[in-house]
Specification:
The complex is a heterodimer of chains A (about 300) and B (about 425). Chain A has 9 helices and 14 strands. With about 300 residues, chain A is α/β, with parallel strands linked by helices. The longest helix of chain B has about 35 residues, at about 235-270. Classes of the chains: A alpha/beta (about 300), B alpha/beta (about 425).
């Protein structure tokens, strides 16, 4: 049984079609990436899954049944725009949000204290939220998202605005939850991050799902037609040559995307003939970014 | 835990974070002080202005009243000094150099100059020259007394005996008896009105203050983006109810504090100055109605304020959009006061006192002043409770869509479209 099943969900705001017949099936225990540029419809899709807004058409099933208000207690949601009550004490705030997820007040307080301990924030429990640094406030927000041990975690652009320390911190939380068998849906417009974290992805562009499936399979399908080259000299002559589809030149190194069916060997011969000093030549999987650009251009 | 308990958690948070602030206690203490100030300010001013006698010059061209003038302005100030310094002025001297006397008035050396014409006993009209129309109280008094004196002389000339005149022209006093619940109570309109006005003032102020608090609360949750987290835990209706009941409970807590303070003062007064209690004899039923109409008024207005907070994205927008709602509070208040002072049992008052937005203040006022039928009170409560349900339904629809809409404030057609959203 899938944790989330969405069938042909659509949502319009006035005349703008934010989400257009998107269908999703999310396996329990998987990390599902909702990918796409800003404004593609990721947040709207997530809000519909959490039932903050209702789809105009289509249906959503959570945990194998149509939405019930109680489902919210089994979901942890981290919106893209973070928010806390600035004047509340950290401990009161966490307890309150725990209660809002259906935990008894005493239990919520106990959980809050345990999490604060684990995140080395125990000494800030009695401080007001506004007295904490931005980084610490973000930690409090993460705790609030998972204090009720949700089975399904939905995080919208979780890494945006985080410093490297908190990025690692959050990544470790997500990984821990994944290992504990929780289902995670995350949205991001940063493809490198998605590649590292996700088992399955859905690429959304202009409200439509343009590509979805298992990330490994998708990558295999797109094959190894990427070549990374470290070099010295002038590589301009490569542009427009038959096997080369596109070049991303950094001066000392470049990523060369080959046309489908072109062999990397052909490129190697061209490089040698072009009098470039090549220090490194390696083939690589097509990055998600390239796949995304590809799909969008085709659609 | 069930759905209800989430609303309770919201109410609990709202109550705790508001009552455990300095602001709450400061406003709770300040409010009665300000209110007492507003009510007793005019009396205080009068007390203060009484310290200085009013300087009056009188020109009696008729010559008939000269003997009476000093006698009719013989009031004294609280310090025992005469209240009016009346000096007669010769008409020729005045005519010879009006300028001097007029300048004295403008400079404040003389407060008023009264000119009694020659034909005062026939038809006459006295002329008062003064620099400020603020002398209204004095001038009314002067007119009354001079015309009474003139009447006396007229009657004397008609051949009546001075003692008889005294009897015939004795002023008639006014004692008012209000019948309420089959009991007569001997209270002057002024006393009842002061009590009623005080309660109306509290009703009006707290409705505005707590309505605006609801609006600001919703707006803060929206702009601080905490609302989206809350919406992933409870639904928008629970959130709105949590806000309304939470802030409302703070209002009731404030009343409770005032009630306790009031009882303490009352108790102290009962021991130290029992005779004062006649002035503040308020029936316990008044408090019951007061709480009832506060709750009705609060919910009617605060759901609208909640909707305003939800549809706006900034304080400035909210300020502008809330004006119509605030007018819905202000207009009934102003109407209540003017109808209360003129005629609390007119048909207009009776009809308005049943209607939503008007009933909380106007029905309360009628109960105090004109003893409406029980069915009228019942009808007003029923109508207004129904109105609360209707308004809540409407506001919940706006709230649900509004809290997730950021950016420019929505237009009326957009809001109407929100009402039709799934």
């Amino acid at each position: 049984m899938n944790t989330v099943v969405a069938e042909n969900i659509s949502k319009s705001f006035n005349s703008f079609r934010a989400v257009d017949s998107v269908s999703l099936a999310i396996r329990p225990g998987s990390v599902f990436g909702l990918l796409g540029p800003n404004g593609a419809g990721k947040t709207t899709t997530m809000r519909m899954i959490v039932n903050i807004i209702l789809p105009d058409s289509g249906s959503i099933h959570l945990f194998g049944e149509p939405f019930r208000e109680e489902h919210k207690n089994r979901i942890g949601y981290l919106p893209e725009e973070r928010g806390l009550y600035p004047k509340m004490k950290v401990i009161d705030h966490l307890q309150f949000l725990g209660e809002m997820k259906g935990i008894e007040p005493g239990e919520a307080q106990k959980q809050a204290l345990q999490w604060l301990e684990r995140f080395e924030l125990a000494d800030r429990a009695q401080k007001k939220v506004q007295e904490l640094s931005k980084g610490l406030q973000q930690k409090v927000q993460f705790i609030a998202t998972i204090i009720h041990a949700p089975e399904l975690l939905i995080v919208d652009e979780p890494f945006s605005g985080l410093d490297p320390l908190n990025t690692k911190f959050l990544k470790d939380i997500l990984l821990g939850l994944k290992q504990a068998g929780k289902t995670i849906i995350l949205s991001t417009h940063l493809m490198e991050q998605a590649e590292k974290l996700c088992d399955e992805i859905c690429l959304i562009n202009k409200g439509k799902a343009v590509l979805q499936g298992n990330l490994r399979e998708i990558k295999r399908r797109y094959g190894h037609n990427m070549v990374n080259v470290e070099y010295s000299g002038n590589a301009e002559f490569l542009r427009g040559l038959p096997p080369v589809k596109s070049i991303n030149d950094y001066g000392n190194s470049m990523e060369i995307r080959l046309h489908d069916g072109a062999a990397p060997g052909e490129l190697f011969k061209l490089l040698a003939a072009g009098n470039l000093e090549v220090r490194r030549f390696e083939t690589a999987e097509t990055p998600l970014n390239e796949i995304f650009i590809d799909v969008v251009e085709k659609s | 835990m069930n759905k209800m308990s989430k609303t309770l958690s919201l109410i609990k948070r709202e109550f705790k974070t508001r009552v455990l602030t300095k602001g709450f206690w400061i406003s709770t203490i300040l409010m009665p002080v300000i209110l007492i100030g507003i009510i007793f300010m005019p009396a205080l001013f009068q007390l203060y202005s009484e310290d200085k006698p009013t300087v009056v010059q009188v020109i009696d061209r008729s010559g008939d009243l000269s003997g009476e003038i000093s006698g009719i302005f013989n009031d004294t100030l609280s310090n025992g000094q005469p209240r009016y310094l009346v000096t007669p002025l010769n008409s020729e001297i005045y005519e010879a150099d009006k300028e001097i006397f007029h300048r004295a008035i403008e400079e404040g050396a003389t407060d008023a100059l009264l000119i009694i014409p020659e034909d005062i006993l026939e038809q006459g009209e006295i002329t008062a020259i003064t620099a400020s129309l603020g002398q209204g109280d004095f001038l009314r008094l002067a007119q009354q007394r001079i015309s009474a004196a003139a009447n006396k002389i007229r009657l004397q000339r008609a051949g009546l005996d001075p003692g008889e005149i005294e009897n015939l022209t004795r002023r008639i006093g006014l004692k008012t008896v209000q019948i309420s619940g089959g009991k007569e109570s001997e209270k002057g309109f002024d006393e009842v009105w002061t009590v009623t006005f005080t309660f109306l003032m509290i009703l009006y102020t707290t409705i505005i203050v707590y309505g605006a608090a609801v609006m600001r609360g919703v707006l803060e949750e929206k702009t601080s983006r905490i609302l989206e987290v809350l919406l992933s835990s409870g639904n928008s209706f629970q959130l709105m109810m949590g806000k309304l009941f939470g802030v409302g409970s703070v209002g009731l807590a404030q009343y409770l504090v005032w009630g306790v303070l009031g009882l303490l003062v009352f108790g102290y007064a009962a021991v130290s100055a029992p005779h004062l209690l006649n002035y503040v004899a308020i029936s316990p039923l008044t408090f019951v109605y007061f709480i009832l109409f506060f709750l009705i008024g609060y919910f009617q207005f605060s759901v609208l304020y909640a909707a305003v907070g939800a549809m706006c994205s900034s304080q400035e927008d909210a300020q502008a959009v809330s004006v119509p709602v605030t007018l819905l509070v202000v207009i009934p208040f102003v109407i209540s006061i003017s109808l209360g002072l003129s005629d609390a049992s007119s048909t207009l008052t009776r009809v308005l006192s049943l209607l939503p937005f008007f009933a909380p203040m106007l029905m309360f006022l009628r109960i105090q002043l004109s003893n409406p039928a029980l069915w009228e009170i019942g009808a007003a409560v029923l109508l207004n409770v129904l109105a609360i349900f209707a308004l809540t339904w409407l506001a919940a629809k706006i709230y649900r869509v509004g809290v997730l809409s950021y950016g420019k404030r929505p237009t009326l057609p957009e809001i109407l479209r929100w009402l039709r959203y799934r």
